[in-house]
Design brief:
Order of helices and strands of chain A: EHEHEEHEHEHEH
Distance between the termini of chain A: 14 Å
Radius of gyration of chain A: 14 Å
Largest interface: A-B, 22 and 22 residues
Oligomer: homotetramer
């Protein structure tokens, strides 16, 4: 039996309404496909919303890659991986995912750039032109844009051959 | 719903028959309790045996914390976390588990010591007196010995209040 | 006696002529101020050039933060710190420096973003408008531009109160 | 010009008198040979003592590999490398040293074991028989005992061909 696709959602820990609403819907849709959701696992912002969205589906699995041993983990995370490596845990998130979804906001610039540098496909949801141009110069063919959560899921499917 | 207990099995990547047979039975029993198994994830020795043992149970979940991006992962690992931190990934294994089981062999000395230093309970299976004395001086009350796989499971149950 | 300022130069490992020439001059000037140079330490591109430049000054000290245990280290690195954490070693570089200098090229996007996220001042040498706009949105007041190596050194001096 | 030997001293952060006095003398002697001292860098116990000892020599260089960005660093550390990887920074210490000196106390068991596992020579100062037997089973030929600081320095010299 092949391993299930692992999909990362990255985004800000701040409570930005549009990002949170996007993340919640993406989490739900990822879980409904039977895929595994991986995030930074904190009980805040995009991370919490994505995991809570996933929990609205049956049989979902959510993995949280926590920065530190004292990090408050989202209750919607099933498996908490305690890295104790601070920001360096972003390297672990992007390396462990097949596809990385970046939810709007520049808070994720280093993670998106890291994912591209590591040869991962990144789907950006709700980004502006400056970010798009910037990231495309790092790895043109690995940057994908999506206007909605359902379009994002379609792109994940294409990119992972599901 | 409370999070399921996550139990780590650590042990050598070499093919030592007694260690492998212990690991396989422990993996199976952990999965049968509905617990989550976490290991170093490599396709070798104790890691492979523990994951394969777990796969003989229905509905098990196995997490592999891989040292590098090129590590060959055991096919019996459900979720591969790619840390790219080499030996430092042992810190992540012990921090992410509630209880750590060390399967016989001195190859795991640094991991066992690390787990004790991090305040984790460690159950040692099949260790000799020198190792026992040594580890008890690091953290006397956190070192537990077990003579068999079923005894190990009983101790995990006590230590995690299952 | 106060600790000497530690200044990081980050940049591509590829052999891009303008970047290499900038890095070599910056390395020399940093060493001539009596500051400590920290880089990724590899024997390639900007890293090698910066360390070689530093070695043309008397009494310089060069620290290389290596990604892996097998990395080929620049002979111009005095102290090689072997992290074995791959790309995550960039976190260590930016956290260990007072000021981070990014030499032209988009290969350093994740490092620059990481430095800004960690509250470090970053001086960008030879960047274009897209990169500038992009990074300024992460931390407007921490992004500094310099047109030449000597201007870069002036900015380091201001930012570190030397 | 060949790189100077880098020698690690590892030991407890607690204030144990015999360990501290050993560490101080070792730090001084290492610096007097013109070698570079590397430690965990904290302002406590063996780490502080070793760095302070080194500072009593002229032209010494002390490197501290700090666990976290908020760690209080010993004022006697010249170059502070901020890893933000918690206990995992021990991997970096042992990989960056040519020889590792373990000062008495079991607090260093995981670091000593890690050093041996990574193929490093370890000199143990003031250890008891249990520890000695235990470590010799990990890597018999890489465990060296020394009864005094000067004997330790002699062994470092042999092991690094100085």
């Amino acid at each position: 039996m092949p391993r299930k696709p692992v999909v990362a959602i990255i985004g800000t820990g701040r409570e930005i309404e549009s990002a949170i609403s996007n993340a919640r819907e993406l989490g739900r849709l990822i879980a409904e496909q039977g895929w595994v959701l991986i995030t930074g696992g904190r009980n805040a912002g995009v991370m919490r919303a994505a995991n809570e969205g996933a929990k609205s589906a049956k049989d979902c699995l959510t993995i949280g890659i926590l920065p530190n041993r004292n990090t408050e983990v989202s209750p919607a995370v099933d498996i908490a991986i305690v890295t104790d490596t601070g920001e360096a845990r972003n390297n672990i998130i992007v390396l462990s995912a097949e596809v990385v979804i970046g939810v709007n906001g520049t808070g994720t610039a280093s993670e998106v750039a890291l994912a591209l540098k590591n040869g991962k496909n990144v789907i950006l949801v709700g980004v502006d032109e400056t970010s798009k141009s910037f990231f495309e110069r790092i790895a043109k063919n690995a940057v994908h844009l999506a206007g909605s959560a359902s379009e994002t899921i379609e792109k994940v499917r294409e990119l992972t051959d599901q």
